[in-house]
Amino acid sequence: MAQNRPAPCYQEYSASMLANVNFRQMPLAARGLLYTLRLECWENHRLPADPSKLASVLRFDESEIIAAMQWLDTFIRTKDGWLTSPELDDYRQHLADQRKAQSNGGKKGAAKTNAGKSQVARESVVKLSTVQPSSAQSNSVINDRDYIDKSWDDFRSATDE
């Protein structure tokens, strides 16, 4: 069953980020802001570029946002008043393309499978049983009080010995 919902996560190799010279030169506060922005961009696609609005959304001090933003140019894009992560946008598009390709492949496979089937109606291989229950057989054995009492008596005498 298809799930029409966004991918819950993105894949990232720590070695790739740690090897990035721009990341390595960032102060700790800028690294923290970068990862906060990446997580927010994955979930919300974009954030307001205005530092006071961004500080309000992230619940950080505006001065900290302004100080750290100067380090983020290689990772975060500002366009039309919004911050986005081009890398994550590309990855999200890659996942969408992959999902579409899998869906198209499944449809092609189903079409091939269905094209090979004959149009003749097939008779079910499951047959109904022709055996009729015996009229001597009681359908209410469990409800028969004598049977229950006898079973209980048998059980009690077996455990008392």
Q: Key terms for this structure?
A:
161 residues; elongated; three-stranded antiparallel β-sheet; 7 helices; single chain; mainly alpha
What features would you describe in this structure?
- The chain has helices spanning 14-19, 21-24, 28-44, 51-58, 62-69, 86-115, 145-160; strands spanning 47-48, 77-79, 82-84.
- The protein is mostly helical and 161 residues long.
- A three-stranded antiparallel sheet has the order 1-3-2.
- Helix 3 crosses helix 5 (62-69) and helix 4 (51-58) crosses helix 5 (62-69).
- The longest helix has 30 residues, at 86-115.
- It is elongated and about 90 Å long.
Secondary-structure-based class equals: mainly alpha
Report the order of strands and helices. Answer: HHHEHHEEHH
Mean pLDDT score? 84
Shape annotation? elongated
- Order of the strands making up the biggest sheet: 1-3-2
The number of distinct β-strands equals 3
What is the strand content? Answer: under 5%
Q: If you compute it from the alpha carbons, what radius of gyration comes out, rounded to the nearest whole angstrom?
A: 34 Å
Question: How helical, in percent, are the residues?
Answer: 55-70%
Largest sheet: 3 strands, antiparallel
Number of helices: 7
Which consecutive residue ranges, at least 5 long each, have pLDDT under 50? none
Terminal-residue CA separation = 59 Å
